[in-house]
Amino acid sequence: MHLVWFRRDLRCLDNRALHAACEANEPVVGLFVETPDQWAAHHMAPIQAGLIEARLKALRDELSALNIPLLVTRAADYKKASETVATLANSLNVNAVFVNREYELNEQNRDRQAQQRLEEQGIDWYAYHDRNLFAPGTIRSGKGDAYKVFTPFKKACLRALEGMDQSPLKAPAARADDTRLTTIFASLEPIEFDYPTEAVSAWPTTEKAILDKLRTYCREQAADYKAQRDFPAIDGTSQLSPYLAIGALSPRQCLARLQSEHPHWREPDSGAATWLSELIWRDFYQEVSAQNPSISKKHCFLEWGESVVWDNDNARFEAWKAGKTGFPIVDAAMQQLNTTGWMHNRLRMIVASFLTKDLLIDWRWGEDYFMSKLIDGDFASNNGGWQWSASVGTDAQPYFRIFNPTTQGERFDSDGRFIRRWLPALKEVPGKQIHQPWSWAEKYAQSLDYPKPIIDHAKQRKQALAIFEAAKNQPKESA
Fold first, then answer.
1. Catalytic residue among 125, 275, 386, 422
2. Which is it for strands 2-6 and 96-100: parallel, antiparallel or unpaired?
3. What pLDDT does 179 receive?
4. How many whole angstroms separate alpha carbon 56 and alpha carbon 49?
5. Could you say which of 117, 144, 417, 437 is the most buried, measured as most Cβ atoms within 10 Å of its Cβ?
6. Is 438 a catalytic residue?
7. Is 386 in the active site?
8. Catalytic residue among 26, 83, 198, 310
9. Of the listed 62, 278, 287, 367, which one is catalytic?
């Protein structure tokens, strides 16, 4: 019997571990292990837990149609999960366990422990690179080094795509009946997490519905992605990131559909090429995480980043979290996050810059808060984005490039449609004056149920420049 241990690969289509497990004439059993203590330590958002739970229910039905039962069990953390898998595999007389690799430090340690225990029991362990377009370590510079900057990494990926078959795998054929499976099917219990969950009714979770969402986006919206992606009032992004984050969709499926709908996807200025760049960004941050274990330990990619002296004002942090900073585009973005579990990508950059450069709060505080709220929380992408915004990561924006939250709002939500949607207290502020509502209110003697700005951007910008310059120029300690 073969056991497929599902983690963030919750799909039947294009699942390399599942496909390999089904190649032999053996009955196949699926397994998912909820790890509530580990998830809490990783700040998993209840809405993402809700998405995983709902997706598992759909996956169980889809696997059942293939005559593959899906067991869902529980272990407190990753260490106990590896023990649980080994014990269960032994009790089921499994001869091989199949997994898709994960690249973060804790996940790698979990898998090493599981592999060792299984092999001590005489059970084979098969692990596959499935999460990315290119497995970490595959894309290298001419000197054989890992890339530290995105643009050359992207160019290398595009060159590699020219000669590589990235076609998604089909779902396995239905398995033959086996008396051992009958007993397992009969023992399946309802899927219900101990970990806190939130409802995800706005997000379909069947394989068909997810694929329909991908097809519709590629066919109807991807061409306009470059022109529309920065404007939060427009529904211009795919919103497929939650499915990529939990593995309900693979990047190869996204690539294949994009290429099918857009034969000229290589044209650099096209919407299709710009959307493909986002898939490659995902690979890039996975590569950085895999090659730099210190990232998983909350360290800055750039060594000098550890010398930044943050203000870390708790009152200001709470105002940022609650969307009560007095800067409309920031506050509207945080309201979107807190209400829906999702935030537009341009807004993620704006609020991250505001936290780190205006409020001078450690990027790690923002990283953890995002993970606690995002339905598409993914460690590598979230960490990479926060370190980029704080100017301490790979391919980071220069520390002296600081977003002005007011002009960002004026540029990307010029008429205030997005702001009015999430900040009803400002709905009566006319036109572009919504970006500085207190100036309008004072000019026309109006009252507003909205906080005044908690900081002076110009003043905070000067302070940020001084703090970052001091950190970057601090002499290194001698060995």
1. 386
2. parallel
3. 87
4. 10
5. 437
6. no
7. yes
8. 310
9. 278
Q: Cα–Cα distances in Å, from 432 out to 109, 162, 328, 427, 446?
A: 52, 46, 11, 12, 16
132 is catalytic: no
Query: What is the predicted pLDDT for the residue at 286?
Result: 95
Cα dist from 287 to 76, 136, 216, 246, 373, whole Å: 28, 5, 30, 18, 24
Is 345 labeled as catalytic in the residue annotation? yes
Strand partners, 5: 31
- Specify the pLDDT at position 477: 59
List the catalytic residue out of 83, 345, 410, 438: 345
How would you list the strands of the sheet with 96-100, edge to edge? 70-74, 28-34, 2-6, 96-100, 124-128
- List the catalytic residue out of 39, 125, 265, 281: 281
Q: Beta-carbon neighbour count of residue 411 at 10 Å?
A: 14
What is the Cα–Cα distance from 323 to 422, expressed in whole angstroms? 10
Please report the pLDDT score of residue 479 as a whole number.
39
Tens of pLDDT, residue by residue over 47-67, are: 999 999 999 999 999 999 999
Block residue for tokens 């991807």: 222
pTM over 0.90: yes
In this prediction, the residues of the chain whose per-residue pLDDT falls under 50 are: 478-479
